[in-house]
Amino acid sequence: MLKEMQKQNMQMRQEEAGEQSAAARTGAGRHWTPLQEMNLIDDFLFDVMTTDLEACRIIIELSLNRKLRRIRWREGQKVLHNLPGKRGVRMDFYAEDMEGNLFDVEMQKRNVGNIPKRTRFYQALVDAPLLERGEKGFDRLNSAYIVVICGFDLYGFGKYRYTFGSYCEEVPGLIMGDGCKKIILNTKGRNADEVEKPLVDFLRYVEQSDDDALPEDCDERLRYLHAKVKHIKASRGVEVSYMKMEERDRLIREEGMEKGMEIGIEKGIEKGIEKGIEKGMERGIAVGSQKKLIQIVCVRLQRGDQPEQIADDLGEETALIRRICTAAQTCAPEYDCGKILTQMEA
After folding, report:
1. Which residue, 65, 74, 288, 332, could crosslink 255 as a Cys pair with Cβ 3.0–4.6 Å?
2. How far is CA 213 from CA 48, 176, 216, in A?
3. Is the pTM of this model over 0.70?
């Protein structure tokens, strides 16, 4: 399942690159967090959690305050494609219940990417595959719920839950009846007396996913989620996948591209902007990749792992890992990645 997640991440990376780079430039870029310190609001932990269908059902129930007998995946679970050449989306999870109601649930840690318009785009892609070409009528457009769990108050009114539907502006209370609702959840809510306790407990747990954040009188469904979180954090296989997929795939490319642009612009002054950026990007990506690999190896060294074991877990040549370990030992206990890289290149 984790390999499938990695494949789907690769499919959507080009489309998400612009938003991620913008976030990095404004200081909202992602940084390395040990798996054991992650919370559900963190992308990787939420991704792994929502490969479990029962966990998805519980998240929907707690988010919407409704009971579901059973749900099933929709559209290969994670990716919705658009017309050729048009942007698709990678969803956190997309499911339907036995009555055909559709649920798209997204986790959003930071306020980037224009969330209201994003939900509009997601709704369009959810609806498009439901009707066949030439089909008359629109009755087969199922009810849809777009849920975004935010680690911030998007609207500033202190509500744990903001529910939006289509209403008539001229006739108060008149509902359009298009069957679509958009729900924005806020982990920073302040109106606990206006909503159900299981929602409040769940949203607080999203922010702090550990034993301390689990109330003694919490809903049994939240206890199920907590048990899954503890299992994921204790899994050696998940930890290795995180190191490989998160650190060496997404963050390396982001940092390498930014460093490469800086080097490329400097070289471009002398040799021409286009050629300079190209060369700088290549060098920047290489340097970023090496430093991140060194960082991962140093973390493993401090845990007492042997070079052969590290190489096997990361899928790297044993000789390379041994070189890193030898250089790292001369830089202990600070383990400065720049100094280690200089030692290796000497």
Report:
1. 288
2. 20, 40, 9
3. no
The Cα–Cα gap between 308 and 59 comes to 40
CA angle 115, 117, 118 (to 5 degrees): 60
Q: Tokens 């070289």 — which residue?
A: 267
Report residue 33 as tokens.
């967090």
Q: Are 122 and 104 in contact (CB under 8 A)?
A: yes
- The string over 139-178, giving b where at least 16 C-beta atoms fall within 10 Å of a residue's C-beta and e elsewhere, is eebbebbbbbbbbebbeeeebbbbeeeeeeeeeeeeeeee
184-239 pLDDT tens trace: 999 999 999 999 999 999 999 999 999 998 999 999 999 999 999 999 999 988 88
Residues near 189 by beta carbon (within 8 Å), at least 6 away in sequence: 153, 158, 159, 160, 161, 195, 200, 203
Q: Which residues contact 334 (CB under 8 A, 6 or more apart)?
A: none
Q: Is residue 78 a contact partner of residue 105, using CB atoms and an 8 Å limit?
A: no
pLDDT for residue 14 = 43
Q: d(Cα 78, Cα 8) in Å, to the nearest integer?
A: 7
What is residue 325's three-state secondary structure?
A: helix
Alpha helix positions (H), the chain: 2-25, 43-49, 53-64, 115-127, 197-207, 220-234, 236-242, 252-271, 273-302, 307-314, 318-330, 337-345
